[in-house]
């Protein structure tokens, strides 16, 4: 069965413990069911060259600091898949590695989507040597996997500006954050992937929304899966703390 491609706005690692976004992630998992596996592109694994995780039991990586002990002790023991890693390697040229595991861009979200941790997961790194269009072109190589029962997933944020983030609950989003978030959604709706690749020209003050590109690049991996006319929908369409977009996208 053809599987969807999904982008998750993951926000704070604290979302692993609950909060307002988990319900939509759980509903998504219930709607999808149990795929044969997941290929996740997370904002939190950047490499020189391209890598794919190839362990049977990937480590739960706590790649953050100064959070509650409960979060630092949390484990997400989902299996890896050497077969899926080999398939991704064959499609993309990625080097299979055991030097990474599941970072919080992956497990803080998927612990809600598949709480039983019973869906095999591999991570594909963000090659820091590639330009935006090269990331998009690389992502197209993953398309056959959707017809092999594999969910292609990305994890980051449309808008990710920690310097302007407001700690108070219910903080009003900045106008530039809302504007960029809506511009990304509109580009998906009209299938305008060139606009997403050239994100700097997508909206006024785009660089306030994307001061560094690692949280935005996973968006391109999901856009690249979208066929002409293929359905697109959004979930958790909110701006957290004024400047972190939690908006998710489902293709198909």
Automatic annotation (TrEMBL):
Chain ranges of the Extradiol ring-cleavage dioxygenase class III enzyme subunit B domain: 34-219
Alphabetically ordered keywords of this record: Dioxygenase, Metal-binding, Oxidoreductase, Zinc
InterPro entries named in the record: Extradiol_dOase_DODA, Xdiol_dOase_suB
Pfam families noted in UniProt: LigB
SUPFAM superfamilies linked: LigB-like
Cofactor: Zn(2+)
Any one Gene Ontology molecular-function term assigned to this protein's record: zinc ion binding
EC number(s) on file: 1.13.-.-
Record bears the keyword Zinc: yes
Coiled coil: none
Keyword Glycosyltransferase tagged: no
Family: Belongs to the DODA-type extradiol aromatic ring-opening dioxygenase family.
Name this protein carries in UniProt: LigB family dioxygenase
